[in-house]
């Protein structure tokens, strides 16, 4: 009942304070609690029951979170859908989870006219029928549910293949929320602009700050202009984004004339922070920075590096460490045999604690593969230093083994990005008859720059075995909405 208790506590403590704001309206904690109860009763009248799965297809708006809270109150599972997915992809997810209903924006619902036969209810947020849900429902006692009940199926970002449905319970939300708040310690006057979508694990960050009584401002799709306007208009104290979003905001013409003085903290995650972006942001924003390292399978954000621990831009030689694990969760680096490696030695990061998922929906084989003696494997390679901070090196699936030597694509990408003419870069493995695999670099660069100059730059900064076999120039590095490089698309080009 964590989500229900969250609403009840804030209704009692801050009834007149804004809880959620989008481009259309704002709702107070009292209004949000009341509407959630109405929705739960209305959905129950439609036949939604405990254990049912309900898909939500929408850009970020207040009704999305209202639906999540209402479905949790009923014991039904909300299944957020990436609104940019193609029609067959959405239909595939809906069919796999057996969703009995799809809620969302009418424009998106109209695009997905053909859905599997399991769907018996379609309802648009922006139609009168949704607004009327529960407003005339007879008072009914809603069930009290244990935190062990599954509450959501959150799909992975699928940078390497088909998205998996991560089944989480309210106990996971509670564990991550309380652990995070114990470290971040936000006051209840936080106003956070959420630039990240509410359809995957990053939404746990917003739920966590809502638990503290914060006001969360939702954007229906990120643009630098929308984010800048939202920070200034709402006098935001926090903004939650991925590093690429921060780059775009700083590059926007309006950034120089926008009043961003209210910002106290920039939360960033999903991808490494480019050092040039960090240096520019520190100089121009004058606020603190908090790194968010998380994974949907472990409950979302389980590691953070706070403002007081962030190094000065000139002191960063490679990349900023992710930080320490939050209270209640544990992490270690393990070798190929699954044994913990010494401090400072690279291994796969594995995680243990009450935030872990229950498993992948209807996929016991994948669930078994991701767990190692009860620890969840992140697929991230990294090490833990003497102060307990986690440093990430690369994804295990992206590791290139050249004639028996480990080559980390992220290291090559970092060196490429240090060249002033390079705007973006991604490195993947290329099959080679002599060495097994060699690096291939894809680069987005300014006009006039050639591969010869970039290879010379790499030669000055990397050992010979780490240097790419060749460089290909492309117009854009493919990234998902969380800012992660979709390397599968780059490998498909080879």
From TrEMBL:
It holds the Pfam family AMP-binding. SUPFAM superfamilies: Acetyl-CoA synthetase-like. The keyword Transmembrane does not apply. Residues 8-361 form the AMP-dependent synthetase/ligase domain. Keywords: Ligase. GO terms for molecular function: acid-thiol ligase activity. It comes from the Bacteria. The keyword Chloroplast does not apply. Gene3D superfamilies: 3.30.300.30, N-terminal domain of ligase-like. Residues 411-484 form the AMP-binding enzyme C-terminal domain. InterPro entries: AMP-bd_C, AMP-bd_C_sf, AMP-dep_synth/lig_dom, ANL_N_sf, ATP-dep_AMP-bd_enzyme. This is 2-succinylbenzoate--CoA ligase. It comes from Streptomyces pluripotens. The lineage of its organism: Bacteria, Bacillati, Actinomycetota, Actinomycetes, Kitasatosporales.
């Amino acid at each position: 009942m964590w989500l229900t208790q969250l609403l009840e506590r804030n209704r009692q403590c801050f009834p007149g304070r804004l809880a959620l704001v989008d481009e259309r309206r704002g709702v107070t904690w009292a209004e949000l609690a009341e509407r959630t109860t109405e929705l739960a009763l209305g959905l129950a009248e439609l036949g939604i029951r405990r254990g049912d799965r309900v898909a939500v297809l929408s850009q970020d708006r207040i009704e999305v979170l209202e639906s999540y809270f209402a479905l949790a109150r009923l014991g039904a599972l909300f299944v957020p859908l990436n609104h940019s997915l193609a029609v067959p992809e959405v239909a595939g997810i809906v069919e796999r989870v057996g969703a009995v209903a799809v809620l969302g924006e009418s424009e998106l619902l109209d695009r997905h006219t053909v859905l599997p036969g399991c769907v018996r209810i379609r309802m648009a947020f922006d139609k009168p029928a949704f607004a009327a849900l529960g407003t005339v429902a007879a008072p009914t006692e809603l069930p009290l549910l244990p935190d062990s009940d599954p509450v959501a199926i959150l799909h992975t970002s699928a940078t390497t293949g088909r998205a998996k449905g991560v089944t989480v319970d309210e106990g996971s939300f509670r564990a991550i929320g309380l652990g995070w708040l114990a470290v971040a310690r936000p006051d209840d006057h936080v106003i956070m602009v959420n630039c990240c979508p509410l359809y995957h694990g990053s939404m746990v960050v917003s739920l966590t700050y809502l638990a503290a009584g914060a006001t969360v401002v939702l954007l229906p799709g990120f643009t630098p202009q929308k984010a800048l306007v939202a920070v200034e208009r709402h006098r935001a104290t926090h903004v939650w984004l991925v590093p690429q979003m921060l780059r775009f905001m700083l590059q926007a013409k309006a950034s120089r004339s926008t009043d961003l003085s209210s910002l106290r903290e920039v939360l960033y995650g999903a991808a490494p922070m480019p050092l040039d972006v960090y240096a520019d942001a520190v100089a121009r924003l004058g606020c603190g920075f908090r790194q968010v390292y998380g994974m949907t399978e472990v409950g979302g954000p389980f590691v953070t590096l706070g403002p007081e621990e962030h190094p000065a831009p000139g002191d960063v030689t490679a990349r900023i460490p992710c930080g320490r694990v939050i209270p209640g969760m544990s992490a270690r680096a393990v070798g190929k045999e699954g044994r913990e490696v010494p401090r400072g030695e690279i291994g796969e990061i594995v995680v243990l604690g009450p935030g872990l998922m229950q498993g992948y929906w209807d996929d016991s084989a994948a669930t078994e593969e991701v767990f190692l003696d009860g620890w969840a494997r992140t697929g991230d390679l990294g090490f833990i230093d003497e102060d307990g901070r986690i440093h990430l090196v690369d994804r295990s699936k992206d590791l290139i083994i050249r004639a028996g030597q480990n080559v980390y694509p992220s290291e090559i990408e970092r060196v490429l990005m240090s060249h002033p003419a390079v705007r973006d870069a991604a490195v993947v493995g290329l099959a080679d008859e002599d060495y097994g695999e060699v690096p291939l670099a894809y680069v987005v660069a300014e006009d006039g720059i050639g591969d010869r100059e970039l290879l010379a730059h790499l030669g000055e900064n990397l050992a010979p075995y780490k240097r790419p076999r060749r460089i290909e120039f492309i117009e854009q590095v493919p990234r998902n909405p969380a800012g992660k490089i979709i390397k599968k698309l780059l490998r498909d080009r080879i």
